[in-house]
Structures are given as C-alpha cells and as structure tokens.
From TrEMBL, chains A, B:
It is found in: Membrane. PROSITE patterns: STAS (PS50801). Gene3D superfamilies: STAS domain. This is Sulfate permease. The chain crosses the membrane at residues 25-45, 51-67, 74-94, 100-121, 133-151, 171-194, 206-228, 248-270, 291-307, 327-344, 351-368, 388-416.
Length: 575, 575
C-alpha cells in the first residue's frame, strides 16, 4: 500500500520548491480575498449568518489540501450547494437560528459521510450517470432559482422562501411595489462594479471592491438609518468545535437532500478539477480519492461550524489563473481568512446585504447556459429533450425533484438504448466482399432467398425481444422465397444465458418454418459462449463462417449441389 | 382501426369449425376437472374458503376467452399469485373473513387496473427486464415457500403465517411432534395418487381422483370425528356481484403487492403462452393485448367474488395436450365449473384439507429447478450469481423483496454492461488486411508508434469515462514511441452529445501530448453525428479512413514523406 495514494499532500510537499511558493502565494491571496465576500454571500444564500461562510473556508480548505488529488481545486461554499442547504433545512422548519445551524452542521456531516463512503466503496463512477445535458439543464434552472432567491435582498422586499419558480414570481409581482429604492440602487451599483470593474484591470478583486465601497457608503452617509439592511455584528475569533445532530428523525429527513448535495457537489467539483488538471498533466486525479477528500472537508465543516462545501467552479479557475501550483495556495487562503476572523470582522458591520446578493447574482448569472440547448436542438434532439425536461422540472417542481428526474431520465436512457441495439439488414456492395446496411446505401446486392442481419450490441435478456421482433418483421417481408437467415455477430461482444436460450429457440422456430440459419463473424468471447451453450452444435459447425462472403459462397455451392443431385438420375441416364 | 385487435375472439369465432370443437370440448372438460381441486387448493393457499377458487374460474375465464390473444392459455388461480395474495392481505391484518375477502377483491381490482393500464400504455416490454436467471431463482424460492405453507394442512399442526423460510422452519421444528398421523397419512396418500396415478393411465385426472378417494374415505369411516380437518359447507349457486374497496389507505398498502402480482403473473402467463404459441403458429401473441386481457379477467374476479388470477403453467400445458384449438375450451371449462357450483357443491363437504394441500405440493414441486443453477454455474457465473442472490433473498426476506431485488439486479446488470463496452486493442493478422484483438490472437503485427483501438458499443454519457480510462492505460503502456492513435468505430452504432464532447476533448488532449488521432470504419449514423459536432473537422477529413489498413498505409506514406522532406536539402545538394 502506498500511503501517498491516501495522503496526496505527500506527493508534492516533500519536494516543495520556492518557485512553486511564489505562484501559490499569489493564488492563495487572490482566492482568499475573493472568499471573503463569496463566503459571506453563500452563507446568506444558505440561510445562515454571513460569518458561517468564513468558518466554512478555514478547516475544510486545509483538510482538502491534505487529502485532495487536485492541486488547484478551491473548496468552499458554492452557490448550488448553498441553495440546496437552504432548501433541505427549510423542509425541517427549524424553530431557532441555533437549530438552523445544527441542521446545517448535520447536513455537512451527512454529506461527508456519503461522499467518504462512496469514495471508500469506489462508487465515484456513479456521477457518470448524470449525463451532460441533464447537468446543463439542472444547472441553468438552479441558477435561475438562486438568482430569484436574492431578489428579496436586492429589492429589500418580503418574499417567502421557496424553490418553485412560479411561487417566487407571483410573490415578487405582489411585493415589487414595496421596493426600497436606496437598497436597490446600492445592489445594482454593486452588480455593475463587480461585473464591469474587471474592464479597468483584469486582476482587480471587484467583489471585495464592491464590499469596501458599500461599507464606506453606509458608514459615510449613515444609510442604515435610512432603511438599508446591513450585516450587523460579525463575531470575531476562530470557529469553536461544534457537533452535528445524531437524531435519526432529522437524519432521515435530511438524507435525500444530503444525497443530492453529495452527487451534485461532487459532479461540479470533479468536472472543474478535470478541466484544470488537463491543463497541467503533472499530477493525476483519482475520482474516489476526490470523494474521500471532499467527504473529509465536509466533516471539517460539520465539526467547525460550517455548512456543506465542495470544489467551486469560478474560484478554482481564478486560483489556477493566479498561478496555484499546489494546494498550498488553499492553505494560504485559509490563513488569510483566519487573520480576517481574528482581526477584521468589525469592518463588516456596515456591509449592506444587497451587496452580498449582488455577489451571488453575478456568480450565478454565468451558470445560465443558453448556447447548449440551442446547440442540442440542432444536433441531438433526444439530448435536447433530456435537457429541457430536467430544466423545466427543476424550475417548477424544485431542485431535488429536478436532479432525481435527471438521474431517472439518464438511467432510463441507458436502459432504453441498451434494450434497443442497432440492427442492420445487409446487402453486398456490388463487385466486392463488403456488406453494408441496405437502409444507408442504395444499389446493394440482395438475394431473395437470403436474409442477412447484423446485430450491433450484446445479445442479452434486456434486448432479446427487440431483436427477435425486428428479425421477425424482416423475415415476414421476405417470407415468400426465404430459405436462409445469416446472422452476422461481428459487433456482438457477448451473449448471456437468456440470449443463448432465445437464440436456440429462434433457430428451432425458423427451422420449423423451413428456414436455415448461418452465423458469421463471431468474436472470441461470443464463440466461447455459443460453444458453452451447445449453440454451435445446434446451428451446425458447417453453418458457422468467418464472414458473410463465405456464408454466401457456401449457400451457392449447397444450392448447386442440390440442383446437381436433383438432376443426377437424368445424368446417369445420359451416360 | 381493426376491432379484432382488441377483441381477438372475432379472429376465430366467425370461422369456428366442428373439428375445432372436438379438441376444445375434450380440453375444456379435462381442464375443468383439473380446476375443481386446483381452484379450491389455491383459494386455501390464498387464505380464502375453497369456494372462492371456483368463483375465480367462472367469469375471468370467459373474459379472457374474449380478449386474450393466446388460444390455449388457461387462466385462473395459480400457486405463486395465490401465495402473493395471502402475503399481501396478511400485512393488512384483516379482522374478519368478510374483510379478508374484501381485500382479496380489492387486490384483484388493483391487479386488473395495473395490467390493463400497462397494456393500454404498451408497457408489456417491462417484463423483459426480469431476466431469465432472476425469474428462475425467484420461482424456485417461491415454490419452496408455497410448499412450506402447506405443511400445516398436511401435518395438521399449528403454524404462523409467514413468508420467511427461517421462521417457517423453526415453527415446523417446534410443532412437528403434534402431527396428526391420520391426516398426514391421507395427505401422503393423496400425493402418491396424484403423482404416480398418471403411470396407470396418462390421461387419468389424478387430482380429482385423490379428491374423490379422500371424500369417500372421510365419509365411509367418519374420519372427521377422528380429527381430520374437512372443507365443510360449500355454498351452492353462482357468485353474486361484489365490489372492491375504494379506501385509499387499503389501496396504498396493497399497491406494492398488486404491482408484484401484475408483473410476476404476467411474466408467468406470457412465458407459457409463448411456449405454446410456438407450437401452433396459426395465430399471433400480442404482449400488450395479453396485459389488457389479463387485466379484464382480474376485473371479473374483483366483481364476482374471486381473487387475482393469471395464466397458469401446468393447466395451460394440459389444455394444449388435450387438444384445445381456441379459447372455446376455456368457456367449456367455465361451464363445467358453473354446473359444479349449481349442483355438486354438497359433494365437497367431506373433502379433507390435507388433500388440497397435496394438490398444491405436487403442483409446486415441479417449479423447483435445480438443473438451471447447475447449468449456469458451469456456463455463466454472473447469471448464476443473479439467480442465487434472487433465490436466497426471496427465501429469507420474502417474496416482494425477492422480486424487487431481482428487478434491481437485472436493471443494475443492464446499466453495468451498458457502462462497460467491450474494447479491443487491434493488431494485423500477418500477411492480410484483417485486424483482430491482440488479447485473443498471438503473433498479430503491431507497430510501436501506433495504438489501434476498437470500441464495441455506443459512445455515450454512461460509458465515456470507462472508454477513456481504458484507452489511457493503453496509451500509457505504449507512451515511449507512440505517435498515433487509430480509433476503429466499426462497432459503434451511435455517439451522443456527451460522447461527442468527450471525443473532442480526448483528441485535443492527445494532440497536446504530440499524439495524432485517426478514425476508421465509421457507420453512417456515427459519421453523421461526428459531422454535426464538427468532429470530422477536428480530426481532419484526411484522418478519417474506410478501414484500418488504409489508415496504416496513410501513416506509412506520411512517415515516408517526412523522411523525404527531412532529407530533401541533401537531395538537392546531390543534384
């Protein structure tokens, strides 16, 4: 056992170089500065006091630095997971902010447990079953829900918590007239600063700039007395130890959302880690170790007053651009947050909530993807349908139902495809020994007495009925003169017991109709299976051919021989 | 619309012939005689008075005769469905026999609703996902559970109702000393008569013979006063109209078992119908119409004091052997039962329950299949594992959990297979243009600079990771001198959007490593997809080849040209 597999930090720390430190320092500070407003904003999105967003990026960041296999991934609160946290806890109707926090810690703990468990049992492959269009539709819908959830801070109006777009839109329509214009102006100003400030200088930390401007404005003009909501007291000092709830009633309510967070969080995190890793290639990603690392980071969140975390898209990109070489950058970010917690929390007293809402809005606006649905509409209608259904279900029936629908759609698609293998009726390209699908090429040579079929996929219980039905239809169409069915198995990788049983039955039932069966181009494992199930004996060893051409030549010879035998008596008479 | 599709009776009734009536009459009487003891026995197995077994074969039989597409299928109570009925109703803890009956009617109604609905929505294909080994393991286990459930009647001992084998065995062990020897002797005698009576004459209705002998013995020697349990009063007359419960509390408890009965019942029925149809071929089976017909038959059971019914294995075989040509045979069986209900019910007063238990035991003993597991152990270990797991789970955790496990296993298998397409690294058969898997053939020609890969399956979201990981491992092994990857797509039937995205990324990442990519032997739909996703442009139209040989020749020429160009300056110098 190689300990470095489980503690990837040992891969790089022993040979850590000064040149690497330069990049890590620059990236660590950049991301740290970014984390201050984002952490607070996402905590607010999750329904918690802003300070918990800062707690959530101390211990978890350091834990990921030790256990994670990506060297640039920036772990912490992200928009989608924070929204899911709020939705999950909301359904438990907590009675106090203490209880709310307890549920948030419990959720982090459960997410940790699930991700750690999935990693240990090597279940990382599960996210493969969230297909690309499903993730895309889900993300766009979630971004819209997140955006709408920030309207109440931006307009300073009362809105109920909901994750159903139709309810939110109605509530916004009913309350929009109560908009607090000063708050709204600050929010819109912040959006402009964050979004277009980059144009002045690309490395300007615009969210922090908006935060600083907001604080200065509120402080300078005493805006809080004019109704602008501010963050208020932010306690100073490091997070103390906390414990999740071990009440199984709470667990059973939180587990569905914990599962959703685990999967969605890991999918987001691993996708960005893969993209960045592809640019470096000096280390390897391990999906199961990633799950373990994220699980441990979430344990850190659970025991140090955080809430569920994962690898974030935008911060990871910034971290990489700013030159991060190893997870030392994350450690430096964490140290920066620790210093903030120790010495600078007082500064945030006058921070307007609308500015944090602006941070969230700008972050999620980039997640709404219009190009991909248009692209899929043009190129792949069934993938487009998956995207749109997931999008609409998420938008109208909620996040959890959305991701579940997406998974069911994806798995349904796998099963649907698996149960309908591609099949082709073959004809010969004139003058060659090449056989092709008669549906895709015209002028192919076909014999009236012979049906040639190629099956493209394994023959097994889930698809035998489909295969038989299709062949039956083809046999029916040529019934008049048909004497032989040639089954080309070149694209069949395996035959299971049900497939073998059925194949046997097909052959017998065709023989009963006076139709002979030849099998061509079997692959090794298929030939083995046919042999095991005595199918070669049933077909007849002389009816098995290396390719379609040999089978046809055999049939021609057989026919010739039959003709010869029929005329043999007359031949002797002539002698 | 062809009305005969929905009323298959119209297919044969208008041209019904005298010769057909002869066969139908013989078969109808034979099955009718068989139905009297079996119906009563299965009613007892379902936890109902024996008379309900006779009710369940009147209207349902006639309804199936009208709507069913099989001409030999004998519908009625069967062992497995009766056992499931008892298990489902038991979990509702009915307080009286009236309530028990109400639940049985409700169950029949729900089964009818589910099967009818599945038929209308053309969901007949769902049973394909119960694989052969899963059905085999499930049936053997259910047969054992059914057999054990009859022990209490055969030994006349008290046993709790249970569907967990371990509990049943413990209870039997604890109570076996209370065996009523006279009852036991009658039961064993009946088993011998039913099982070996056939040896005297193959068309002897041995179950009815056992029933007659039992009645005669009890009546002649007044055995009921000596403790032999008898059936007692059997009310005479036809079943009156009944109504299922429409209490949604009852429905929600019964729905899981109703779903199980619908699927298992249909699977059993359709399997036997298919086997028999294959011997006749003068009509066609339609799985969705079969579901509709069985659904309507169950409605008949629900409204005429029956309980869930389906097409039975043994009775159908007997029906066919006895010469049934159309479902007229079923109508004749039903008429026979009606006559029995009207005139002969008094005869059954003295029938010992142990004889009905013997009827069930002999019927289910044939369902325990030892050959198939042994066969699978030798020929297909993964199918063997599915069989054994389903068998053990059904035996120890109950029928419902068993069938659910079987379905999950089957679907899991579909997904597992779908996510791991077969792949081969290719080499050239020396002296030919034929390329084969280097793992299955030795002495194949391979170039150090070229990796040739064939993917056997669609490229889509569920398997892209597996494909990439496998290719990466192969690339890694040849890394030293590798210049080109040739991907053979001859067995790839389709590429979805995720597959296209990934393929694009792979190509870019290999290029970044200095490895070129060629694609060969694409099928029509795949070429279309590659074109739509601009992948042909990305690979380069001159890097797409009709077959592997052309790709290799292209590479040779390219190499030669590169060499030529490198030496070109010297060449001119020489001139």
């Amino acid at each position: 056992m190689d300990i470095r597999k489980y503690l990837p930090i040992l891969e790089w720390l022993p040979k850590y170089e000064k040149t690497q430190l330069k990049g890590d320092l620059s990236a660590g500070i950049t991301v740290g500065i970014m984390l201050i407003p984002q952490g607070m904003a996402y905590a607010m999105l999750a329904g918690l006091e802003p300070i918990y967003g800062l707690y959530a990026v101390t211990i978890p960041l350091i834990l990921y630095a030790i256990f994670g296999t990506s060297r640039q991934l920036a772990v912490g609160p992200v928009a989608m997971v924070s929204l899911l946290t709020a939705a999950g806890i909301g359904s438990l109707h907590p009675e106090s902010t203490d209880q709310y926090l307890l549920y948030a810690l419990t959720l982090a703990f459960l997410v940790g447990l699930i991700q750690f468990g999935m990693g240990v049992f090597k279940l990382g492959f599960v996210v493969n079953f969230l297909s690309h269009p499903v993730i895309n539709g889900f993300t766009s819908a979630a971004a819209i829900i997140i955006g709408l959830s920030q309207i109440k801070h931006l307009f300073r109006i009362n809105l109920p918590n909901s994750e159903h777009v139709q309810e939110m839109l109605v509530a916004i329509y009913q309350n929009i007239h109560e908009t607090h214009m000063l708050t709204f102006a600050i929010g819109v100003g912040a959006i402009l600063v964050i979004k277009y400030g980059k144009k002045i200088h690309s490395s300007l930390p615009t969210p922090l700039l908006a935060v600083a401007l907001g604080i200065a404005l509120v402080w300078g003009f005493d805006l809080s007395s004019q109704g602008v909501k501010i963050v208020g007291d932010v306690p100073s000092g490091l997070p103390t130890i906390s414990f999740p709830s071990f009440d199984f009633g709470v667990w059973s309510t939180l587990i569905p959302i914990a599962l959703t967070i685990s999967l969605v969080g890991f999918a987001e995190s691993f996708a960005v880690a893969k993209t960045i890793q592809a640019k470096h290639k000096n280390y390897k990603l391990d999906s199961n170790q990633e799950l373990i690392a994220l699980g441990i980071a979430n344990f850190g969140a659970a025991f140090f007053r955080g809430f569920p975390v994962t690898g974030g898209f935008s911060r990871t990109a910034v971290n990489n651009q700013a030159g991060a070489k190893t997870t030392m950058a994350s450690v430096i970010s964490a140290v920066l947050i620790v210093l903030t917690l120790l010495f600078f929390t007082d500064l945030f007293y006058n921070l307007p909530s609308a500015i944090l809402a602006a941070v969230v809005l700008v972050a999620v606006s980039g997640l709404i993807d219009l190009r991909e649905p248009i692209n899929l509409w043009k190129k792949d209608r069934s993938d487009f349908a998956m995207l749109i259904v997931t999008f609409l279900v998420t938008l109208t029936l909620g996040i959890e139902t959305g991701i579940l629908t997406g998974m069911v759609l994806s798995l349904g698609m796998v099963i649907y495809r698996a149960s309908r293998p591609h099949m082709a009726q073959l004809g010969r390209v004139p003058g060659t020994h090449v056989f092709r699908n008669i549906k895709r090429f015209s002028n192919l040579e076909e014999k009236e007495e012979v049906l040639m079929v190629r099956i493209d996929g394994p023959i097994y219980f889930a698809n035998v009925k489909y295969i038989k039905d299709k062949m039956d239809a083809w046999v029916e169409r040529k019934r008049q003169k048909l004497t032989t069915v040639i089954i080309n198995l070149e694209s069949v990788p395996s035959v299971d017991s049900t497939g073998a049983h059925e194949l046997h039955e097909w052959i017998l039932s065709w023989r009963a109709l006076g139709i002979d069966v030849c099998i061509t181009a079997t692959k090794g494992p298929v030939r083995d299976a046919l042999n095991r199930w005595n199918l070669i004996e049933c077909v007849g060893a002389d009816h098995m051919f290396i390719d379609d051409q040999s089978a046809l030549e055999f049939l021609d010879k057989k026919l010739a021989k039959e003709v010869q035998e029929r005329y043999a008596p007359y031949a002797t008479q002539c002698d």
